[in-house]
Design brief:
CATH class: Mainly Alpha
Largest sheet: 2 strands, antiparallel
Oligomer: single chain
Strand content: under 5%
InterPro entries: Adenine_glyco (IPR005019), DNA-3mA_glycosylase (IPR052891), DNA_glycosylase (IPR011257)
Structural class: mainly alpha
Keywords: Metal-binding, Zinc
Protein name: DNA-3-methyladenine glycosylase I
Number of helices: 9
Strand order of the largest sheet: 1-2
Number of strands: 2
Number of domains: 1
Distance between the termini: 25 Å
Order of helices and strands: EEHHHHHHHHH
GO molecular function: DNA-3-methyladenine glycosylase activity; metal ion binding
Radius of gyration: 17 Å
């Protein structure tokens, strides 16, 4: 599919054509660079929680995720106890998946450890593709790349989990490592 024109007259990627939270996310966040450790950890954790689910589910629950994960402060989340995991397993405001909750705790600890080597933000952005994709249709969209595979391997070596190549490709799109918008979408080029 090519970009579509929404009811507001703006041309967008097809998944964001209708009004609502997905359109807001598409227009104002997706593909825009984020800054700081907490912002990068949040996106990495939420992409992990999204695995097997729709992004709209995660987006709807994002406010509660931010509350219960202390705005993704790595030190705080890394210090979560087994009791905290049990508390989160009982919270209907988030995705209650034990493996993903425990991965968030592990990923926070791995983020803290990365500070000695430049930090999470530096590591993630080191995998920017030399030639960013420029898809004109949804059929040309990627789901993995050599860079997302390499990022996945590097993160796993450092103790991260729920960081497979497809999830890392989605992370790269989400945090603006490259512009994921289709050519012709009004948001293409606005995130840099």
């Amino acid at each position: 599919m090519e970009p579509i024109t929404g009811d507001d007259g703006l041309v967008r990627c097809p998944w964001a054509g209708g009004p609502g939270p997905m359109r807001e996310y598409h227009d104002h966040e997706w593909g825009h660079p984020v800054h700081g450790e907490a912002a990068h950890l949040e996106r990495l954790v939420l992409e992990g929680f999204q695995a097997g689910l729709s992004w709209s589910t995660i987006l709807t629950k994002r406010g509660r995720f931010r509350e219960v994960f202390a705005d993704f402060d790595a030190d705080t989340v890394a210090a979560f106890t087994d009791d905290d995991v049990e508390r989160l397993m009982g919270d209907p405001g988030i995705v209650r998946n034990r493996a993903k909750i425990e991965a968030a705790r592990r990923n926070a600890a791995a983020t803290v450890a990365l500070r000695e080597d430049g930090g999470l933000e530096t590591l993630l952005h080191s995998f920017a593709p030399p030639t960013p994709p420029a898809p004109a249709t949804t059929e040309e969209l990627g789901t993995t790349s050599a860079e997302s595979v390499a990022m996945s391997k590097a993160l796993k070596k450092r103790g991260f989990s729920f960081v497979g190549p497809t999830t890392m490709y989605a992370l790269m799109e989400a945090i603006g490592i490259f512009d994921p918008h289709l050519v012709g979408c009004h948001a293409r080029g606005t995130g840099s």
